[in-house]
Design a protein that fits this description.
The structure holds 2 protein chains of 2 kinds.
Chain A (H helix, E strand, L loop, with lengths): L2 E5 L2 E5 L4 E8 L3 E9 L5 E6 L5 E4 L2 E6 L4 E6 L8 E11 L2 E2 L3 E2 L3 E6 L1
Parallel strand pairs in A: 2-12
Antiparallel strand pairs in A: 1-3, 3-8, 4-5, 4-9, 6-7, 7-8, 9-10, 9-11, 9-12
Chain B lengths: L4 E3 L2 E4 L5 E6 L6 E8 L3 E9 L2 E5 L6 E5 L5 E5 L8 E8 L10 E2 L3 E5 L1
Parallel strand pairs in B: 2-11
Antiparallel strand pairs in B: 1-3, 3-8, 4-5, 4-9, 5-6, 7-8, 9-10, 9-11
Classes of the chains: A mainly beta, B mainly beta.
């Protein structure tokens, strides 16, 4: 059974700090790892990491994938109050029947204090 | 381009009743997936439909079912509701299915409360 563990489960920092969120996983036949940001409602897509794309960056956010050690990190630099959200990590594997549904971690609840 | 639309947004049911939730994917997206989100278990995969066929199913009892129509709209049904079915039900669509090459876009969810 696929498994995703995120740490820490919650984190409170001050505006301007840099944070690192962790995601370790076990998956049958890895296909991709995705990061989502969830505020009040729908999770919104941040990054997708695959065997051919193990580093992604967008503005103050960046993520890397270590396929050997089976983990990923999400970095946020110069945090702002608008970064406060739950950050979800998910992995996708595939089996004989094709791609499996995403397996999500419980998320990291990040709070940025002014 | 309109996003993923879910209806109803909120609903309250009592134990033993059944419920039907609806999802309209982004235009052109043929795959629709459903997830259940609870504080204790997080987001859990229910099932995925592609071209009106269930392509994948998670570990949920048979009380949870779904279908997809020819216009890619999808419905999920939960019968004989239990208190533990109280959750946010999220629908997500993608172009070809959760193949890793296509990202899921989520709707805002339907929040179900079972009393």
């Amino acid at each position: 059974e696929d498994k995703v563990v995120q740490s820490p489960l919650s984190l409170v920092v001050h505006e301007g700090d840099t944070v690192t969120l962790n995601c370790s996983y076990e998956v049958t036949n890895f296909r991709s790892l995705l990061w989502y940001k969830q505020e009040k409602k729908a999770p919104t897509f941040l990054f997708m990491l695959t065997s051919s794309g193990i580093e992604k960056k967008s503005g103050r956010l960046s993520s890397i994938l270590d396929k050997k050690e089976l983990f990923s990190i999400l970095n946020i630099t110069a945090t702002q109050t608008g970064d406060s959200a739950v950050y979800l990590c998910a992995v996708e594997g595939y089996s004989g029947g094709g791609a499996d549904g995403l397996t999500f971690g419980k998320g990291t609840h990040l709070i940025i204090q002014p | 381009k309109a996003g993923v639309t879910q209806t109803p947004r909120y609903l309250i049911k009592t134990r033993g009743q059944q419920v039907t939730l609806s999802c309209s994917p982004i235009s052109g997206h043929r795959s629709v997936s459903w997830y259940q989100q609870t504080p204790g278990q997080g987001l859990q995969f229910l099932f995925e439909y592609f071209s009106e066929t269930q392509r994948n199913k998670g570990n949920f009892p048979g009380r949870f079912s779904g279908r997809q129509f020819s216009n890619s709209r999808s419905e999920m049904n939960v019968s004989t509701l239990e208190l533990g079915d109280s959750a946010l039900y999220l629908c997500a669509s993608s172009l070809e299915g959760p193949s890793g090459a296509n990202v899921l876009t989520f709707g805002a969810g339907s929040r179900l409360t079972v009393l």
